[in-house]
């Protein structure tokens, strides 16, 4: 249907909007019916810049450019995350963060107040290969920015409290990242493609961040932050003579040193395509990252691969976007990229699709990689790609910051400057044969790493048989297929191993008592009756669970949490393999409702997990899959329990030899400490990432 | 298809950046009192404006020093114009604008522009839809012609529409349903903050509901096009390396023959905050940390208090030296991140305070701290130093935002749409400099009150959430 402003009145009046299709459109002025030819071209040149090296080895580039009175100064120091020792992943990044948090003459507050007071910015960050300190301001405040940049580079003091604050923020940031499926996919991709021994394959995790000491930060700074090998790039509406003089004043006396990019170990060779499935229960999309290693930055095929990438997924005009989004409507976006770090980069495609087209997406992505190898890029597509890449050159010369960014990469990686200044010529020289040859050399769908982040219960069946599959949780811990799907066989928990008794616990928040809990287990005929009463500032909670004294089959659950309008109450019984009953919920949780859900054999009710583990055969490395029905959501949940160690722990109730058991898959990851001697009663419970724990204070179980 | 060009590149940016992107979610414009406003001191530039006979408002800012040309078209059409039962429709329409027109086949708009070396995109907020391309100077005419062709005659089939509905639903899943804090963000910016009965315009989200999107029909498309995509409801801005006489000629040639449409009806939004206060919980299986979102009912951008509210948000939430960062993130170490957004609009807008808790900290604690910081301003006011910082930040942000031709085009459009004239690009810094410490204290005590707000607590994990996309 063509919607035209000329014909709409009649069309809308009759309701026959489709009539508008093909109706003649007469214009007041003659209408232009095809794209106009280009106007006269305006010659645009890459801007000039000044380059010098100070006696201490500092390379300086001054780029006087731009139309607005702004300036930026970037100090690039070789040595980013690639220098992190494996057991200290995150060191470079933390060093950068604390660098701007205090100098010999300024506190962290003074630094931020000074730069923000003039509307400028000062940041330090660490990428894979470089630690970068950046300052920017309007030109009338540029000396404030330059002076602060110099101060943090020369005189950072790494105050102990700032180190701890940064650590805490880093840990919270890592936690937050687990909720980002794209970030999870990217991390898994790097881990798989580069391997654990290559620094690009590693990422900070809580354990490595917690292990970093202040002395290590200072040592890292001493190793990396000095004039040797560094590049200071100043861009903006500045006078180059005055700027050069000022730079010599500020940085001429800086200590030199030796520093070059680190040497890298070889990433692992891949010999087959493989799916790395990251199980993210409840995910409403599947996130795909498909690819493998690419080329080193100086590789002669780089420009052919740049054109190839543009054809594959470098924009809205490219194959992935056109096919996956425009033709199929499977996704909001589909792209590919080639990266160019100091060591070998990657070639990969990225998309997020609805779960039910995960198999089709897999097939299509592999097919599109194959096509690059199997057929030459048709002339029209090749022109389209080259025209975009070369034609957009002026658009990348709009601001001093853009130009500086392009210069920096070239200077830092030691690439020919002509690659940047004569980029359009390099691109226009690429032929269809070059692209196909480069694809045959560097694109290997038969060896691709296929990362999928999604809900296995929704997606896995679609992917099985297409390639070998390995499973992980969002933290990168390997899982088995059984752990991901829950085993098909009902687990036989032997309830006869339980013993009557009562246990008391205290609840602590950051070591301060917060409440108490009482657990009682009694035998009534062929049933176990478990009651749990928890008192805390959040309200009281009382649960009574009944289940078979032989095989753990649930019989009933009644639960009361909180008071008043926020109260939650459940009264459920199991009949003929179904859970029936009433759940009262606060309005904002959906209000009251009837529950009628199937309860498969082996599936527990909430609160029974701990009792099942008490009778499990615990041993070092053992893992168990526990399934339970989330009665509030009406959905089946799978919890993984894994014995990760044996520890003697001390609690108010005594000193115990315990198994440390990690539980994942529930609302909050937990660590349980269970008595080694059976039944394995709960001695301590910790909530991962939260300063809350439950400690045994007394028990009367023998 | 806003944000899609960067959306696919889930770069390994730091976690701070991940959360920063959250605060710039498509539905809230951040407290950058700067980038889209104007300056007296640097950042100024010349422009002319005129109207075609059919009502198209044209603003031209030629600048021979540029390397590119921005062609930027704003329609006065946002989610505020959607009736109940059609939420998400204006956004769907933005997608449909790329489905082809009389002389441009589906997908060709992308192709023509990108093959000319240009960039393009579109975006929508509650208040407007923009379509924009940056092209090399010699292809200005191409961008103008493409915009004119789809303003004149849009081409939509049942099949195209069904597919774009799918794409938009995937967009919703990616941005809201599969994304931490996506739902909380919508509650804070729309559902909980506005009274649905008196101001449906802002009480529903831009992205809309899956149910409404599925219900869209071709007749709706026709009606929307007739009403909102007419030249007299649009403003065309061209900025960069071009000759003004050439541009005038081309614009007349391409757009001059498109007939005027009828004037759209006024959007009603009376007493949008009469339902406040509101407090609610959002269970979020994607979120890993608790969070609190406070939305205070405030004023429209053109209101005399708007500048003082912007300065207030700046002092509370902008940068590491801001009050919220100093208190919540540094002193108390209770928050991973904090923010204050001035989410002002064409109609009554919001001042939003947001905190994402550190591990082990409850959202309620963040609320206490945020309240204490607001109380402190009400009781003691702000310092001259803080005012000075806010002014410098606005001035710097304004100038930085105007480095690119697209930044200048957006500044002109913003001035025109929200302040009634593109001349307002010249007065951003003036507006901010006129704000006194007493003004800031006064607007804090007037608008940031306990009974004038919606409070949303985000709880990581599962739970039954209120169905919300009215």
If you average the pLDDT of chain B, what whole number results?
87
Number of strands of chain B: 12
Number of helices of chain A: 20
What's the main sheet of chain B like?
6 strands, mixed
CATH class of the largest domain in chain A: Alpha Beta
Strand order of the largest sheet of chain B: 1-2-7-3-5-4
- Multimerization state: heterodimer
Give helix and strand order of chain B, one letter per element, not per position: HHEEEHHEEHEHHHHEHEEHHEEHHHHHE
Fraction of residues in β-strands of chain B = 15-25%
Would you spell out the secondary-structure blueprint of this structure?
The complex is a heterodimer of chains A (702) and B (470).
Chain A: E1 2-4, H1 8-14, E2 50-53, E3 59-64, E4 70-78, H2 91-99, H3 108-117, E5 121-126, E6 130-138, H4 142-155, H5 160-177, H6 181-194, H7 206-211, H8 214-224, E7 231-236, H9 240-251, E8 274-279, E9 285-293, H10 302-313, H11 319-327, E10 331-338, E11 346-354, H12 358-374, H13 379-391, H14 400-412, H15 418-421, H16 423-428, H17 432-442, E12 449-454, H18 456-463, E13 469-472, E14 478-479, H19 481-485, E15 501-509, E16 512-524, E17 527-536, E18 539-548, E19 554-561, E20 568-575, E21 578-584, E22 593-598, H20 609-614, E23 623-630, E24 635-651, E25 654-664, E26 670-675, E27 682-687, E28 692-699
Parallel strand pairs in A: 3-7, 8-12, 8-13
Antiparallel strand pairs in A: 2-3, 4-6, 4-7, 5-6, 9-11, 9-12, 10-11, 13-14, 15-16, 15-28, 16-17, 17-18, 18-19, 19-20, 20-21, 21-22, 23-24, 24-25, 25-26, 26-27, 27-28
Helix pairs in contact in A: 2-8, 10-13, 10-17
Chain B: H1 4-7, H2 15-23, E1 48-51, E2 57-62, E3 69-75, H3 89-96, H4 108-115, E4 119-124, E5 129-135, H5 140-152, E6 153-155, H6 158-177, H7 182-191, H8 210-214, H9 218-228, E7 234-240, H10 244-255, E8 278-284, E9 291-297, H11 306-317, H12 323-331, E10 335-343, E11 350-357, H13 363-380, H14 384-401, H15 405-419, H16 428-433, H17 437-447, E12 453-460
């Amino acid at each position: 249907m063509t919607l035209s402003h000329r014909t709409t009145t009649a069309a809308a009046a009759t309701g026959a909007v489709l009539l508008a299709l093909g109706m003649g459109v007469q214009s007041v002025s003659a209408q232009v019916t095809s794209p106009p030819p280009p106007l006269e071209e305006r010659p645009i040149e890459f801007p000039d810049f000044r380059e010098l090296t100070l006696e201490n080895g500092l390379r300086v580039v001054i780029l006087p450019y731009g139309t607005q009175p702004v300036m930026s100064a970037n100090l690039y120091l070789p040595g980013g995350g690639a220098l992190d020792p494996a057991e200290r992943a995150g060191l470079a990044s933390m060093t950068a963060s604390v660098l701007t948090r205090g100098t010999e003459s300024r506190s962290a507050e003074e630094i931020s107040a000074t730069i923000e007071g003039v509307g400028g910015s000062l940041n330090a960050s660490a990428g894979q290969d470089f630690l970068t300190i950046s300052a920017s301001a309007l030109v009338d405040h540029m000396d404030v920015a330059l002076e602060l940049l110099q101060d943090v580079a020369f005189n950072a003091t790494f105050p102990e409290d700032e180190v701890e604050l940064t650590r805490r923020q880093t840990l919270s940031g890592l936690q937050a990242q687990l909720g980002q499926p794209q970030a999870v996919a990217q991390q898994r991709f790097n881990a798989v493609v580069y391997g654990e021994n290559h620094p690009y394959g590693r990422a900070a995790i809580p354990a490595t961040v917690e292990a970093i000491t202040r002395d290590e930060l200072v040592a890292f700074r001493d190793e990396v932050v000095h004039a040797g090998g560094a590049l200071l790039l100043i861009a903006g509406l500045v006078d180059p003579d005055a700027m050069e003089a000022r730079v010599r004043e500020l940085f001429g006396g800086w200590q030199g040193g030796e520093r070059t990019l680190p040497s890298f170990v070889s990433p692992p060779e891949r010999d087959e395509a493989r799916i790395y499935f990251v199980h993210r229960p409840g995910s409403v999309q599947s996130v795909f990252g498909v690819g493998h290693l690419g080329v080193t930055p100086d590789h002669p095929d780089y420009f052919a691969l740049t054109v190839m990438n543009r054809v594959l997924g470098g924009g809205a005009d490219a194959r992935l976007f056109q096919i996956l989004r425009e033709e199929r409507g499977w996704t909001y976006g589909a792209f590919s990229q080639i990266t160019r770090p100091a060591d070998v980069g990657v070639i990969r495609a990225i998309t997020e699709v609805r779960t039910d087209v995960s198999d089709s997406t897999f097939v299509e992505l592999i097919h599109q990689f194959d096509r690059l190898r199997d057929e030459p890029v048709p002339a029209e597509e090749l022109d389209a790609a080259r025209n975009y890449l070369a034609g957009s050159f002026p658009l990348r010369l709009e601001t001093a910051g853009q130009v500086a960014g392009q210069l920096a990469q070239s200077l830092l990686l030691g690439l020919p400057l002509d690659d940047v200044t004569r980029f359009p010529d390099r691109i226009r020289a690429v032929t269809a044969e070059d692209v196909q040859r480069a694809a045959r050399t560097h694109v290997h769908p038969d060896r691709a790493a296929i990362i999928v982040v999604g809900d296995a219960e929704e997606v896995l069946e679609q992917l099985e048989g297409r390639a070998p599959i390995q499973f992980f949780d969002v933290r990168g811990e390997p899982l088995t297929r059984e752990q991901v799907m829950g085993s098909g066989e009902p687990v036989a928990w032997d309830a006869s191993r339980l013993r009557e008794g009562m246990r008391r616990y205290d609840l602590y928040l950051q070591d301060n008592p917060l409440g108490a809990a009482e657990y009682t287990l009694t035998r009534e005929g062929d049933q176990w009756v478990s009651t749990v009463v928890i008192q805390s500032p959040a309200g009281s909670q009382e649960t009574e669970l009944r289940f078979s004294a032989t095989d753990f089959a649930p019989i009933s659950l009644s639960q009361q949490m909180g008071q008043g309008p926020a109260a939650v109450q459940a009264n459920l019984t199991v009949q003929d393999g179904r859970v029936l009953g009433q759940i009262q919920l606060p309005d904002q949780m959906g209000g009251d409702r009837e529950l009628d859900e199937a309860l498969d054999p082996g599936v527990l009710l909430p609160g029974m997990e701990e009792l099942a583990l008490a009778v499990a055969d615990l041993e070092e490395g053992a893992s168990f899959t526990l399934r339970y029905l989330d009665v509030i959501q009406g959905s089946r949940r799978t919890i993984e329990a894994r014995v990760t160690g044996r520890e003697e722990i001390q609690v108010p109730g005594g000193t115990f030899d315990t198994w440390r058991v990690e539980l994942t898959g529930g609302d909050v990851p937990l660590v349980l400490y269970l008595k080694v001697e059976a039944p394995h009663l709960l001695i301590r419970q910790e909530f991962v990432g939260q300063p809350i724990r439950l400690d045994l204070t007394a028990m009367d179980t023998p | 298809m806003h944000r899609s060009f960067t959306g696919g590149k889930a770069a390994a940016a730091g976690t701070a950046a991940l959360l920063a992107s959250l605060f710039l979610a498509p539905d809230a414009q951040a407290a950058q009192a700067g980038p889209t406003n104007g300056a007296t001191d640097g950042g100024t530039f010349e422009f002319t404006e005129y109207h075609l006979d059919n009502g198209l408002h044209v603003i031209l800012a030629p600048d021979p020093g540029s390397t590119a040309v921005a062609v930027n078209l704003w329609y006065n059409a946002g989610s505020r114009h959607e009736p109940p039962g059609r939420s998400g429709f204006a956004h769907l329409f933005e997608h449909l604008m790329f489905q082809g027109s009389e002389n441009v086949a589906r997908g060709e708009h992308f192709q023509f522009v990108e093959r000319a070396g240009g960039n393009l995109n579109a975006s929508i907020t509650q208040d407007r839809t923009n379509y924009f391309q940056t092209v090399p100077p010699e292809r200005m005419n191409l961008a103008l012609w493409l915009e004119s062709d789809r303003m004149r005659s849009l081409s939509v089939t049942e099949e195209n529409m069904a597919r774009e509905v799918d794409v938009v639903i995937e967009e919703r899943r990616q941005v809201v349903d599969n994304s931490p804090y996506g739902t909380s963000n919508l509650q804070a910016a729309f559902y909980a903050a506005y009274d649905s009965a008196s101001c449906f315009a802002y009480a529903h989200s831009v992205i809309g509901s899956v149910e409404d999107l599925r219900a869209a029909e071709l007749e709706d498309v026709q009606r929307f096009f007739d009403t909102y995509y007419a030249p007299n409801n649009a403003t065309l801005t061209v900025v960069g390396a071009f000759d003004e006489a050439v541009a005038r000629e081309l614009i007349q040639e391409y757009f001059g023959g498109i007939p005027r449409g009828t004037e759209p009806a006024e959007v009603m939004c009376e007493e949008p905050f009469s339902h406040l206060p509101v407090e609610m919980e959002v269970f979020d299986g994607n979120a890993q940390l608790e969070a609190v979102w406070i939305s205070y009912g405030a004023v429209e951008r053109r209101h005399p208090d708007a500048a003082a509210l912007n300065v207030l948000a700046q002092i509370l939430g902008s940068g590491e030296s801001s009050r919220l960062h100093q208190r919540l993130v540094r002193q108390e170490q209770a928050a991973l991140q904090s923010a204050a957004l001035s989410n002002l609009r064409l109609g009554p807008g919001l001042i939003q305070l947001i905190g994402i808790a550190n591990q082990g900290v409850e959202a309620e604690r963040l609320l206490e701290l945020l309240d204490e910081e607001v109380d402190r301003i009400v009781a003691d006011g702000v310092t001259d130093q803080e005012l000075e910082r806010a002014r410098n930040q606005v001035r710097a942000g304004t100038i930085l935002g105007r480095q690119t031709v697209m930044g200048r085009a957006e500044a002109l459009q913003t001035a025109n749409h929200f302040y009634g004239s593109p001349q307002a690009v010249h007065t951003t810094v003036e507006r901010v400099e006129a704000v006194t410490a007493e003004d800031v204290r006064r607007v804090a005590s007037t608008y940031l009150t306990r009974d004038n707000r919606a409070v949303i607590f985000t709880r990581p994990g599962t739970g039954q959430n209120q169905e919300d996309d009215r």
